[in-house]
UniProtKB/TrEMBL annotation:
Domain Lipocalin-like: 28-108
Source lineage: Bacteria, Pseudomonadati, Bacteroidota, Flavobacteriia, Flavobacteriales
Keywords: Signal
Bilayer-spanning residue ranges: none
Classification via Pfam families: Lipocalin_4
Domain of life of the organism encoding this protein: Bacteria
PROSITE patterns tied to this protein: PROKAR_LIPOPROTEIN
Source species of the chain: Flavobacterium suzhouense
Signal peptide (residue range): 1-17
Name under which the protein is recorded: Lipocalin family protein
Amino acid sequence: MKKFLFLSMFVIMLASCGGLDTKSQSGLKGNWTITNVTYPGSDYIKVTSFDVADSKCFVGSSWNFVSNNNKGTMNVNGSGNCPSFSSPIVWTVTKTGDFTLKITEGAKAKRVTEGYFLKMRNQSETSFQLVDNVNVGGKNVEVVYQFSKM
């Protein structure tokens, strides 16, 4: 049921948004690193990102985006209290800036029934932001991941 729900939401989103943004997708091709993660209250509140680790653990993580097949990889460097984590990913960008992400952990993407919906902002040749809306204490907070080209 979850698979059907996720796939249905994905198809509806693509149809309502007018499809994929191939220009934005091709602009992500290559190797990137997260240089900063910000959100209101980040000094006092911890947010777990992508069900992997504390959001601050993603600073310094490396990401590879392959635009011709919408696949890639993400690698979180374990240091301090942060775990090491590496996984293949599948991703898309719509014309309205919606960014979908599936962390497949080696499984076929069609078998992964859950994913993440973020917003892509401020894309340039050397940087972009992904914004995730999370609920912290009953309040909607934007978590901003700042990416820089490696």
